């Protein structure tokens, strides 16, 4: 773990008093910006080796690929002079993927042998899958750390069935009308049951905020599709009776619709990241996310062009560009010295036992 001395707060005493740090927290939160130091060329070397070995081993190496990738991105993400880290073991990921593969294979075979058997197996999957997802979340958090202190996920299995089964089913039955509410419940479940050491995260965004993001995205989709379609029709009319010109105009219109739809994705992603993190707190601290949809669209569009022109070799550079922008638009609004906060949490964990003990050695890698 790398550490630095460029904290926005004075250095803590040799034996920090976490309670006193909270009692004397600054009236105005001190902004601590997240930073990403990775480069496309560095990640390219990791990515190309991962890709080749995954192909050669028929996918088995993909578990090691995930660990190496997460370690690279974690260790190049820093806050207040210290980096994050990932400690997951490839064997656990491989085990999880093997379970999912066996379940998927059984479902495919059952569907060909007897439709009723496939239905029964689908019900069994609905029963088992939320349990796997919860254990995967526990694994991911328990193997993530900052300044040597682990995160943890404490969500219950019972609530997982609501989040991963009940709400998605209701969304389907209501033809998508409950999708924003289901999304809000998912984020609420994830953030309200995550902690850093013993300090809890909290999430206070309501369903109305999610409906706002979804409705604005839907309205934007309708507008851009209509504009692109009208432009295509206008080009077709202006082309007159020339069949070649009309076909060309139609293609341009379809291309316009496609590009317009692509523009909606970055808006949705930007609005959602800002909504989620601007309503998330960690004990006395809060977060601020300021992702701009226009900038995210520019990065997305240029990444897509780069990947197309290089036949996929630009993919690692594209991922680094996206990660750097989204990470560096994040700020922790610290209401107490962060060094003292982390030290206090480490002390609490030491007194209460390992806060990350309640997790299972499995990751289904979703």
TrEMBL record:
Bilayer-spanning residue ranges: 44-64, 92-110, 116-139, 160-182, 213-237, 244-268, 296-320
Keyword terms, alphabetized: Membrane, Transmembrane, Transmembrane helix
Tagged with keyword Transmembrane helix: yes
Source domain of life: Bacteria
Protein name, per record: DUF898 domain-containing protein
Organism listed in the record: Cupriavidus pinatubonensis
């Amino acid at each position: 773990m790398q550490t630095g001395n460029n904290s926005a707060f004075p250095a803590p005493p040799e034996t920090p008093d976490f309670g006193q740090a909270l009692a004397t927290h600054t009236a105005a939160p001190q902004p601590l910006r997240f930073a990403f130091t990775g480069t496309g060329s560095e990640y390219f070397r990791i990515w190309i080796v991962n890709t080749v070995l995954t192909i050669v081993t028929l996918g088995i190496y993909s578990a090691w690929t995930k660990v190496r990738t997460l370690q690279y991105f974690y260790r190049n993400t820093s806050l207040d002079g210290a980096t994050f880290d990932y400690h997951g073991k490839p064997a656990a990921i491989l085990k999880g993927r093997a379970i999912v593969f066996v379940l998927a294979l059984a479902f495919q075979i059952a569907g060909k042998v007897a439709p009723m058997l496939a239905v029964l197996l689908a019900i069994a999957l609905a029963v088992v899958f939320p349990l796997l997802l919860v254990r995967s979340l526990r694994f991911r958090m328990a193997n993530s750390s900052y300044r040597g202190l682990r995160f943890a996920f404490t969500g219950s299995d019972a609530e997982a069935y609501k989040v991963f089964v009940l709400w998605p089913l209701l969304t389907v039955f209501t033809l998508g009308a409950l999708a924003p509410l289901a999304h809000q419940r998912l984020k609420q479940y994830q953030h309200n049951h995550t902690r850093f050491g013993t300090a809890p995260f909290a999430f206070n965004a309501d369903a109305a905020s999610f409906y706002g993001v979804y409705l604005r995205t839907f309205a934007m989709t309708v507008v851009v599709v209509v504009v692109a379609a009208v432009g295509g029709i206008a080009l077709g009319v202006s082309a007159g009776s020339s069949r070649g010109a009309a076909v060309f105009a139609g293609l341009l219109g379809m291309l316009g619709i496609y590009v317009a739809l692509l523009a909606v994705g970055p808006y949705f992603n930007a609005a959602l990241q800002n909504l989620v993190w601007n309503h998330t707190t960690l004990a006395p601290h809060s977060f601020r996310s300021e992702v701009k949809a226009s900038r995210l669209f520019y990065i997305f569009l240029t990444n897509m062009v780069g990947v197309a022109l290089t036949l996929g070799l630009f993919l690692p550079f594209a991922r680094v560009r996206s990660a750097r922008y989204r990470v560096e638009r994040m700020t922790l609004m610290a209401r107490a010295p962060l060094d003292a906060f982390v030290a206090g949490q480490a002390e609490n964990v030491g007194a209460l036992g390992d806060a990350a003990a309640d997790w299972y050695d499995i990751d289904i890698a979703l």
